[in-house]
Amino acid sequence: QVSWIRHSDLHLLTVGRYTYTSDQRFESFHSPHTHDWILRIKTPQPKDTGVYECQISATPHMSQRLYLDVREPNTYFIGGPDMFVDLGSMVNLSCVISHTEKPPTEVKWFHRDTEISFRGPRDGVSVITEKAEHTTVHLLMQGARPSDSGIYTCVPNNAPSAKIKVHILQGNQVAGLQTNKGSTHHFLSLYVFFVYIN
């Protein structure tokens, strides 16, 4: 018999094909023509994060532990929650969408709660999308002007929205402030969904 145990509360989840928990999201099944017994968790949630153990009632006794890390979709701005930009320079707002099953098929941008139109009165506006481990969407606006100040919202169709407040600086009106002049930032992020423990 093959059993699955959750270590966070030492709860016996399944034995063979039988489920021993009231949480019906958990089920065990045997892959036909193989020796594989799989624990399936429907609609996994962050609370499911932790160590799980597969035990085989044989002689000698065998077991295998694994660590499951469940991440919720997340959206954030690089350099947020405030960005300071010199008058006349390039505005580069970088919205990062992470921990999604697939990249978003649509990302909308809002300025002061009004959707940004790329064919609107504000010229020099463009969007660049990078799809890698995470999806990064850059909103670029040439020639920053006072009317560009305010709160911007990035709204992907498969993750929460994120906000950033843009301040347009005119001359040296704010002393000792580090400004953004369209410089390039490099970020390295690493996350592990499954870690097997010997």
Overview of this protein structure:
The chain is an all-beta fold. The protein has 2 domains: 67 residues, Immunoglobulin-like; 96 residues, Sandwich (Immunoglobulin-like), CATH 2.60.40. Helix content is 0%, strand content 47%. The strands form 4 sheets. It has a 6-stranded antiparallel β-sheet with strand order 3-2-1-6-7-17, with no helix packed on it. Strand 13 and strand 14 form a beta hairpin. The two termini are 21 Å apart.
Q: List the helices and strands in order.
A: EEEEEEEEEEEEEEEEE
The CATH topology of the largest domain comes to Immunoglobulin-like
Q: Let me know the largest β-sheet.
A: 6 strands, antiparallel
Termini gap: 21 Å
Gyration radius (Cα, Å) is 24 Å
Helicity level, as a percent range? under 10%
Broad structural category: mainly beta
Mean pLDDT: 86
Shape label:
elongated
Low-pLDDT segments, ≥5 res: 174-198
Instruction: Please name the fourth-level CATH homologous superfamily of the largest domain.
Output: Immunoglobulins
Q: Label the CATH architecture of the largest domain.
A: Sandwich
GO cellular component, one term: neuron projection membrane
Protein name: Tyrosineprotein phosphatase Larlike [Bombyx mori]
Domain Ig-like: 1-67, 73-165
Entry summary:
With 198 residues, this protein is mainly β.
List the helices and strands and how they pair.
Elements: E1 2-6, E2 11-15, E3 18-19, E4 26-30, E5 37-41, E6 50-56, E7 62-68, E8 74-77, E9 82-86, E10 91-98, E11 107-111, E12 114-115, E13 125-131, E14 135-141, E15 150-156, E16 162-169, E17 194-197
Parallel strand pairs: 9-16
Antiparallel strand pairs: 1-2, 1-6, 2-3, 4-5, 6-7, 7-17, 8-10, 10-14, 11-12, 11-15, 13-14, 15-16
